[in-house]
Write a structure and sequence with these properties.
mainly alpha
């Protein structure tokens, strides 16, 4: 019995560490900023003119899938998900997804086709709107509950 004690303790320790890494509901904790280790992301205040223009463009081009409040729909994920923090999905990822489309990789909602008529200049404004909402609203946990 003594020869099994050390391996059992090791297994118990590993399981304990894994349980501590999970939230009480089994979801993963918010990802950490790779530089500071914080779970909060410093998103600078966005230019209010770009935010207002981006809001109008978002409502016209993105809201039907991602929700007018950015919280997602049955066909598009929430842009307030921590997955869309600037360290995981930078501004270039948003632009590339809107301009060229992107394959599904975090949700099982299907691939995102290119967004008709949206330009890179539009995306600067749309991203300002999204980042300002992320800054003021904060992030939702992933996976969604």
């Amino acid at each position: 019995m003594k020869r099994f004690a050390a391996p059992l303790l090791l297994v118990a320790a590993v399981i304990g560490v894994l349980l501590l890494m999970l939230n009480g509901d089994g979801s993963s904790p918010l990802p950490r900023d790779p530089m500071t280790g914080r779970t909060e992301f410093d998103i600078p205040v966005q230019d209010p003119v770009l935010v207002a223009e981006g809001d109008a463009l978002y409502q016209a081009s993105c809201a039907s899938c991602h929700g007018s409040d950015l919280r997602g729909t049955a066909i598009g994920p929430s842009h307030l998900s921590v997955i869309y923090n600037p360290y995981h999905h930078g501004d270039g990822a948003f632009t590339a997804a809107a301009i060229a489309g992107v394959g599904a990789h975090h949700w099982r909602l299907g691939d995102m086709p290119p967004t008709a008529g949206v330009t890179q200049d539009d995306m600067v404004r749309i991203i300002a709107f999204i980042r300002e909402a992320q800054r003021t609203e904060g992030f939702e946990a992933y996976p969604p509950r």
